[in-house]
């Protein structure tokens, strides 16, 4: 009988598994990615903050980064406001947001209807290449959550995805059949690369596949290490880092 996989023997994994860690996302795929590397005690607290930033005002990179940061801060402050004495304060909050950016620069999120879903996938096919941007934001309180201040770090990663062409394996009836599976209804861009969508729609990718799934895992661990183990702001030297 095959022995079960063991968690990664990394200090950050060991540390976080002894603490209260909140994943500010309802995505089962993000939870699964973190569990695969050994984070077993995740508390799922999705953000309730509306994702209503004006896409005409924000460029794609700023849009996805701001949305992820807003989710992270909203869940953290809400958790403190609803604090129970019997439950420890969170040691880490992880939030993320994923968007699709079409070749002509439009931001796509989840399809709003079946008709929208069909239009979305046909457009991605007809333009061949699109970009998947996932921004991850992590936050850890300084000392403990009852004292002012926290460290927050974020990173946005890009993966290029290429769909098959209509005349090379991706005619309309394949897209229509895929939409009816409903696999992509809860996913940015309307498809799941780890499922049927990845097998039928996607020809190739350039970059990280876990980024397309919804969380760049290696970078998430790196950010978690920084906010958890480096409390001194002067030691932070990554572009885009911040302490508050």
TrEMBL record:
Single GO term (MF): nucleoside triphosphate diphosphatase activity
UniProt-listed Pfam families: Maf
Keywords from the UniProt entry: Hydrolase
InterPro entries membership: ITPase-like_fam, Maf-like
Cofactor section: a divalent metal cation
Source organism, top-level taxon: Eukaryota
Gene3D superfamilies: 3.90.950.10
PANTHER family per the UniProt record, alphabetical: BIFUNCTIONAL DTTP/UTP PYROPHOSPHATASE/METHYLTRANSFERASE PROTEIN-RELATED, BIFUNCTIONAL DTTP_UTP PYROPHOSPHATASE_METHYLTRANSFERASE PROTEIN-RELATED
The protein's name: Maf-like protein
Source organism of the structure: Trichoderma citrinoviride
Lineage: Eukaryota, Fungi, Dikarya, Ascomycota, Pezizomycotina
